[in-house]
UniProtKB/TrEMBL annotation:
Protein's name according to its UniProt entry: Diguanylate cyclase (GGDEF)-like protein
Stretches assigned to the GGDEF domain: 173-307
Pfam family, one: GGDEF
Gene3D superfamilies referenced in this protein's UniProt entry, alphabetically: 3.30.70.270, Haem NO binding associated domain (3.30.450.260)
Domain of life: Bacteria
InterPro entries given in the database record: DGC-Regulatory_Protein, GGDEF_dom, HNOB_dom_associated_sf, Nucleotide_cyclase, Rev_trsase/Diguanyl_cyclase
SUPFAM superfamilies: Nucleotide cyclase
Higher taxonomy: Bacteria, Pseudomonadati, Pseudomonadota, Alphaproteobacteria, Rhodobacterales
Record organism: Sulfitobacter undariae
Length: 322
């Protein structure tokens, strides 16, 4: 970052870093005061006045774009020639950014080197912090997802189901709730073991997902209990059709290690058209009452909740045997 001037004040030599500031501008041969405007001290417009301020800090602005605001000191060589040492001063970061400078553009004794190292260290630390934050954010999202997921079937779990029902009730959106219990599942576990039971649960879960819409949510809320949430159902016949499809799929025999697993599904369904005054607990209780009615009527069927069912089941305990 230097220039040499001849006796007439013309630029005779340009340092390599100074060339980077104006790579397309021919500097050699031009008058120093035609290329640089002296901001301080004031009223320096000729070579004589410039030489009077030898060894004094100069505030300079190099013509052209982008603006290059520099600090400089003019040193006389005694034979009429001069050397102008240049620096960016506190605008070093803008200079490095605008002209793509590196530590090789500065003398090793220049304090700018220390600043560049500090900036590089800060940049590296910020990048490491950014990557760490991304990993932590990803881990948090994975943990939150795991907290809402049933690990065996991959379905949503009770926690996710509760949150969804609360959201739908709060938005006053009509929706359907199917509470599903697998009939005779205990027999599979008792006769063929838990491995067979787990396999049957996975098959049943996949069947429910396939027989519902992409906008519906299937959740496993207990050992062999599932709940399906169907938002924006405009016709009760839609719920009836979905229920029939699920029942038909679940009662299909499941092969496991040469053995046949035979189960069925009982469903209690609630069609919510207006959520005023309803709570999540009430919704699930109504679906449970309807499910109990399906169990009582012989299983492998769907029953829709009605207010009259509360009187019928006021002294009963929900399906003690499943």
């Amino acid at each position: 970052m230097h220039l040499t001037l001849d006796a007439q004040g013309r630029i005779a030599h340009v340092g390599p870093t100074t060339k980077k500031l104006r790579p397309d501008m021919p500097l050699v041969g031009q008058l120093f005061l035609d290329v640089f405007q002296v901001k301080r001290p004031r009223e320096i417009s000729n070579l004589k006045r410039l030489r009077e301020v030898c060894n004094t800090k100069l505030h300079l602005e190099m013509k052209g774009k982008p603006p290059a605001r520099l600090k400089g000191v003019l040193v006389s060589c005694g034979d009429g020639t001069s050397i102008v040492n240049l620096s960016f001063g506190i605008s070093i970061m803008e200079g490095v950014r605008d002209y793509t400078l590196t530590n090789t553009d500065f003398a090793v004794t220049d304090l700018a080197i220390e600043m560049l190292y500090l900036v590089e260290a800060k940049t590296a630390a910020m990048e490491a912090s950014r990557k760490l934050n991304l990993r932590l954010q990803g881990a948090k999202q994975m943990a939150e997802e795991a907290a809402r997921t049933d690990m065996l079937t991959g379905l949503r779990n009770r926690r996710a189901l509760d949150q969804l029902i609360e959201q739908l009730l709060g938005a006053h959106i009509g929706f359907g709730v199917m509470h599903i219990d697998l009939d005779h599942f205990k027999t599979v576990n008792d006769t063929l073991g838990h491995a067979a039971g787990d396999y049957v649960l996975k098959v049943a879960a996949a069947a429910m997902v396939e027989e519902t819409r992409a906008t519906d949510t299937v959740a496993r809320v207990g050992g062999d209990e599932f709940t399906v949430i169907l938002p924006e159902v405009a016709d009760i016949d839609v719920l009836a059709q979905v229920g029939r499809r699920i029942i038909d799929r679940i009662k299909m025999p499941v092969q496991f290690n040469g053995s046949v697993c035979q189960i069925s599904a009982s469903i209690g369904t609630v069609w919510i058209q207006g959520s005023d005054g309803l709570t999540r607990e009430t919704v699930m209780e109504n679906a449970d009452i309807a499910l109990y009615a399906s169990k009582s009527k012989g299983r492998s069927r769907q029953t829709f909740y009605s207010h009259e069912m509360r009187g019928e089941n006021s002294h009963g305990s929900p399906f003690e045997q499943r």
